[in-house]
Design goal:
The relative contact order is 0.11. The protein is α/β, with parallel strands linked by helices. The chain has 16 helices and 17 strands. The model has no long low-confidence stretch (mean pLDDT 95). The longest helix has 24 residues. It is globular, with a radius of gyration of 25 Å. Helix 7 crosses helix 8, helix 14 packs across helix 15 and helix 15 packs across helix 16. The structure holds nicotinamide-adenine-dinucleotide. The site of nicotinamide-adenine-dinucleotide has 23 residues, from helix 8.
């Protein structure tokens, strides 16, 4: 290349600290401890595939509220009488999505693209434009079975985050002994700022692009933050539309509505799994959940279901923190009432804030509440060193993925706070996803009691193995056998969980070998 020629430089290969390298610290520690075979280490240190793609969708027209100053110019504009008010979809920022049918048959008074709604406010009509979104699917490892992992719709996502979450799925599926590998993906989007039909269009377009990368025996998505059973239904439809043997493809996604092939018990499975681990933690100490107090961060699928089940076991919920703020009641928060409040269609932000049976407190104070346990069930990285130093709980059961930073982990160990780590605590979801996948393959439908019984066995058996590894107490009981996994010394529970995962994954490589 001639001197002075301009060319694109590849970035320097100096290792940088990312959410992925942070998440992998525990992998490296456990791999060192067990002397993981170097080839297996290389296979697991980076994902098999990292897909990034873009999806473009046409958005709908919006009505944007004017400030009182701007609205003065339209003071004599008569209000539009809407025949189909359902066609107006409110967004949390005060805007409305204008679905085509909203104005049908109405007497519409528009001036310079502005109209007055029956609420008395003036709105500017902004035509919908096409928007491009960044989408991801990371397929981390498939030594033990097809890639498996959730689809996240959130504005704060990145390739590194999805790599970390995909790797977590590899560990998790090994820990609960389901024959899957690990994957994760989603879209960089804040779904609260889009209408129902827009989310549908974005989801269909997402699957249109994703389809070539996945399959019911290749890679199986499921719900995660910002997605739910409804989105899974759309993903199934788009994947299977027009296919000759459509009914055999139902296992392409899990977490579907039970009426279209979902499993009984799946919706609550992650929260129930958290509760089963906690129940076993206390049972082993000769006590029970009854009378214990707890706090929860995140009141979505995982947090609300864990709270509901813990309350039904006799525990008292003292406080909930979500994306909007924190509510607190020393006498206990009624979980079903809080759930009804959050799910009320008028509660546009789906937030616990303003719940009548509670007082609002600062997030800072939330972390300092004295309680028996804390269930983080929101996003990753929330329990930092500062937070860990201030916690006033005896047990953390991680409902969320990666809620604790590696530095905070060390504080938790030092302070003697017990931990049920995420890769076992929140593995109930993927466990019942596996049951759903089997039911789809067999065209069967199991009862909720059967699903919950199997889930309880799976969670408690593997949590006991992890506990034994942590205490270096190899044993065989009727329910579990930890003899192959203990390493001759004590470790913390997070490391113990990773050791269990790595030993199970390593066995596949050792016994099956490597194709070149
Ligand atoms: P969700 O979208 O149903 O709920 C997320 C909750 O977190 C909401 O209450 C939201 O207000 C809150 N939240 C968001 N940002 C926050 C912030 N900065 N501070 C405090 N609260 C915040 O999501 P979900 O499905 O319940 O998932 C929650 C966590 O559990 C995630 O880490 C997810 O990866 C993990 N997880 C979910 C499942 C599952 O089956 N849904 C399975 C395993 C792990």
């Amino acid at each position: 290349m001639s001197n002075g020629e301009v060319f694109m430089r590849a970035p320097a290969t100096t290792p940088r600290r990312t959410v992925y390298t942070e998440a992998m610290q525990i992998f490296e520690r456990a791999a060192d401890l067990i002397g993981l075979a170097p080839r297996v280490r290389l296979e697991l240190e980076e994902p098999d595939y990292e897909h990034i793609f873009y999806i473009t969708t046409k958005l709908k027209d919006r009505l944007v509220p004017l400030s009182p100053d701007q609205a003065r110019a339209f003071s004599d504009l008569p209000a539009t009488k809407l025949r189909n008010p359902d066609g107006l979809e409110p967004l949390p920022d005060g805007r409305f999505i204008l679905n085509g049918r909203a104005l049908l048959g109405s007497d519409v008074a528009i001036r310079s693209g502005h109209l007055r709604l029956p609420d008395g406010n003036i709105y500017k009509l902004v035509p919908g434009e096409s928007q491009r979104f960044k989408a991801y699917r990371v397929q981390h490892n498939q030594a033990r079975g097809p890639y498996k992992g959730g689809i996240r719709y959130h504005h704060e996502v990145s390739l590194d985050l999805f790599k970390a979450l995909a790797a977590e799925m590899t560990w998790k599926t090994a820990i609960v002994e389901v024959p899957f590998g690990g994957a994760k993906g989603g879209i960089q989007i804040d779904p609260r700022h889009y209408g129902r039909e827009e989310i549908e269009a974005i989801t269909l377009r997402f699957m249109y692009k994703l389809k070539r990368l996945i399959g019911p025996n290749v890679d199986i998505p499921a719900p995660d933050v910002g997605t739910n059973a409804e989105i899974m239904g759309l993903l199934f439809r788009q994947y299977s539309d027009g296919e000759n043997e459509r009914h055999t493809l139902r296992g392409i996604v899990t977490g579907k509505d039970v009426r279209i092939g979902g499993s009984e018990g799946r919706a609550k499975a992650t929260g129930r799994g958290v509760a089963f681990c906690i129940e076993d933690y206390y049972a082993e100490k000769g006590t029970s959940v009854r009378g214990k107090t707890f706090t929860v961060q995140g009141f979505g699928n995982v947090g609300s279901n864990a709270a509901e089940i813990l309350q039904s076991m006799g525990a008292r919920l003292l406080a909930v923190n979500d994306a909007e703020g924190t509510v607190y009641n020393a006498d206990g928060i009624d979980v079903p009432a809080l759930l009804a409040y959050v799910q009320d269609p008028k509660n546009l932000k789906r937030s616990v804030l303003g719940f009548p049976g509670s007082q609002r407190i600062d997030k800072k104070d939330f972390w300092e509440i004295r309680a028996d346990m804390l269930v983080p069930a929101a996003l990753g990285g929330e329990i930092t060193t500062e937070v860990a130093e201030r916690l006033n709980v005896k047990l953390i059961a991680e409902g969320a993925n990666g809620p604790t930073t590696p530095e905070a982990d060390r504080v938790i160990v030092r302070r003697g706070i017990d931990l049920i780590p995420d890769i076992i605590a929140n593995a109930g979801g993927v466990t019942v996803s596996y049951y759903e996948w089997i039911q789809n393959k067999r065209m069967e439908s199991w009862s909720e009691a059967e699903v919950n019984r199997k889930l309880e066995q799976g969670m408690k058996r593997n949590w006991r193995i992890i506990r034994d590894i942590a205490r270096n107490s190899p044993r065989q009981t009727e329910m579990h056998d930890s003899r192959r996994f203990c390493i001759g010394k004590e470790v913390d529970t997070r490391c113990a969980a990773m050791i269990l995962a790595l030993k199970r994954i390593e066995a596949h490589y050792q016994l099956e070998g490597f194709s070149q």
